[in-house]
Amino acid sequence: MTEDTVFMKIIRREIPADIVYEDASTIAFLDIRPNNPGHTLVVPKTFARNIFDIRDETLDAVMHTVRLIAPAVRNAVSADGMTIIMNNEPASGQIVFHAHVHLIPRFSNDGFGHLPQKQYVPGEAASIAEKIRQALA
Ligand code: AMP
């Protein structure tokens, strides 16, 4: 079943996790394979696969929890900053198909830097922007 994800098992306490926060709509726990110590996942209790099917109120609840716990995660590991990301579909690195937001504590010396950046050829940005505007219209 689509909704029988590893994160649902954590929500139902069928498998262990280092849970740091929970409310009626969301749960937050440490990522089992952290990019850095303190790497935390915020997961909605109402199932969605990712950003492409999540309901507004579900994402609102997730982001409320992200904002609530970010300072606590930062302080717990004395991080210098934090990368907050959501992977959506395998091309982006999504491996658990239950929507979640990563809070990744960042350190000045962690060596991760920024995602590699590219350059547009002339006219490409304007063309893509127009396609996005048309898709939204
Ligand atoms: P993503 O690549 O965005 O789908 O991220 C899924 C994350 O879930 C990965 O970083 C995994 O390390 C993490 N993960 C998978 N199983 C567990 C688990 N049982 N407890 C905690 N984190 C997990």
Please characterize this protein's 3D structure.
This protein is of the alpha+beta class. The protein has a single domain, classed as HIT-like (HIT family, subunit A). The protein has three helices and five strands. The chain has helices at about 5-10, 55-75, 125-135; strands spanning about 20, 25-30, 40-45, 80-85, 100-105. The chain has a five-stranded antiparallel β-sheet, covered by helices on one side. The model has no long low-confidence stretch (mean pLDDT about 95). The structure holds adenosine monophosphate. Adenosine monophosphate binds near residues 6, 29, 41, 94 and 95.
Q: Give the count of structural domains.
A: 1
Give, in spatial order, the strands making up the sheet with the most strands.
1-2-3-5-4
Ends: how far apart? Answer: 35 Å
Order of helices and strands: HEEEHEEH
User: Averaged pLDDT, please?
Assistant: 97
Q: Please state roughly what percent of the residues sit in beta strands, choosing from under 5%, 5-15%, 15-25%, 25-35%, 35-45% or over 45%.
A: 15-25%
Q: Which ligands accompany this protein?
A: adenosine monophosphate
Unreliable stretches: none
- Derived from helix and strand composition plus strand pairing, the structural class reads alpha+beta
Overall body shape: globular
CATH fold assignment = HIT family, subunit A
Q: How many DSSP-defined strands?
A: 5
